[in-house]
Amino acid sequence: MGFNVGSSLLDPSLTVSVFALHSKLMDVRGFWHLGLGNVPTDTKMSQIEVSAMKSPLTPLATLIGRELRGEKVEKPYLKYGQAGLAKKGEDYFLIKTDCQRIHSDPSTSFSVFAIFDGHNGISAAIFTKENLLANVLSAIPQGTSRDEWLQALPRALVAGFVKTDIEFQQKGETSGTTVTFVVIDDWTVTVASVGDSRCILDTQGGVVSLLTVDHRLEENEEERERVTASGGEVGRLNIFGGNEVGPLRCWPGGLCLSRSIGDTDVGEYIVPIPHVKQVKLSNAGGRLIIASDGIWDALSSDMAAKSCRGLPAELAAKLVVKEALRSRGLKDDTTCVVVDIIPSGHTVLPPPPIKKPNMLASLIFGKKNQNSMNKTNKLSAIGVVEELFEEGSAMLDERLGKDSPLNANSGIFRCAVCQVDQPQVEGLSVNSAPFFSPASKPWEGPFLCAKCQNKKDAMEGKRLTRPTVVL
Ligand SMILES: [Zn+2]
């Protein structure tokens, strides 16, 4: 390695981060060492047990060295905790740590953590909790390698969200829900979200980043323009004498979110197409805090992360909820899930070695652009996270890609959203013109069945009918 050790000694942060990650320094910094024991990812939450001061078994410098040498790094452990207080009883969460990419193959395990903050009732939140994961997985081709599976995941999340929304609409109920849906496979974290339940990442560099985007009309001008262009009206609530109060809402319906699952009575321009972000943590690990807006209306991302740093996940979740209540009182349903991604050989997350960016780590974990839509983000700047994918467009044809997984010669096509096989004449390609003739040129995927094409047109305001409930 060709970095300059001599000059770096003048820079305490660089020195500490690379060469002096032993336990003594960490203890001087005053971190708590709380042991939970080595619990595999698929066990239940363990009892909190405060152990004696104990140094991490593998220093960060060793882990970085392993990565540089291309050595195989063992799978991380997950430890997690959940806490919440109900005001209306419309928050739901999902914790599933026994998923497998290949059935009966434990080496292909992954975990899912999600929060569903319902409104106007609970049916959309419950329906989504029960069906979304299966709908996402059904959109990933079988027999793929791990890397292919992770690459297919962002698109499958879009398909799964839209399919779940269509299925819920068919129930004829009017409630809606936010969704923040987190898939963790080893060091790779993929987050898909609609609405305003956030997921933040507290990296081992000590920098807190948002992995979701708030789909609130009040705060998102791009979404306001999209909703208006698709036929929605955006404005505030009018009370006596025309005084406007509260946040910007979409009318009819009065919803302040621009994306959700459900909300059949509000309008199709309230779309279920998620913002998706995929990152790969360094093998120093990190902490995710997933929570409903009851937390985020009271605490900033930094405040939430700092309020529980150094504590085990179960206690951390309780502390974040307590901190939110202390500053704001119980005004809304408040739910928090904390997930620690911990390097094998450690009992807790290694404490952050430094507070400010360091050049060496940036060189090691350089940013990989897989997507031209990648937004500027400080995550890669601090060098502890590799950004793999980010896309938030509400246009389905920008999200489903062009390659079709099925053989065009068969004459049978699988809908890219609902995964139903149909002869090609019954559907339209996302990329085709309205009068596209299959005979004139090769079929350009992805194919949508008539029902999903109808949904796509409605979401884009091309069917300006009143919202209807299909029974
Ligand atoms: Zn379909």
Write up what this structure looks like:
This protein is an alpha+beta fold and 471 residues long. The chain folds into three domains: 77-215 and 270-394, PPM-type phosphatase domain (Phosphatase 2c, domain 1), CATH 3.60.40.10; 221-256, no CATH class; 401-459, no CATH class. It contains 14 helices and 19 strands. It has helices at 5-8, 12-19, 23-28, 60-68, 123-137, 146-169, 221-229, 293-296, 301-308, 313-328, 359-364, 378-382, 396-399, 450-459; strands at 77-85, 91-100, 109-119, 176-177, 179-185, 188-194, 198-203, 208-210, 233-239, 243-251, 261-262, 275-281, 286-291, 334-342, 385-391, 412-414, 421-423, 427-429, 447-449. The strands form five sheets. Strands 2, 3, 4, 5, 6, 11, 12 and 15 form an eight-stranded antiparallel sheet that branches. A five-stranded antiparallel sheet has the order 1-14-13-7-8. Helix 5 (123-137) runs antiparallel to helix 6 and helix 9 crosses helix 10. The longest helix has 24 residues, at 146-169. The radius of gyration is 23 Å and the shape is globular. The protein starts with a helix and ends in a 12-residue tail after the last helix. It binds zinc ion (ZN). Zinc ion (ZN) is lined by residues 415, 417-418, 420, 448-449, 451-452. The site of zinc ion has 8 residues, from strand 19 and helix 14.
Question: Brief overview, please?
Answer:
27% of the residues lie in helices and 24% in strands.
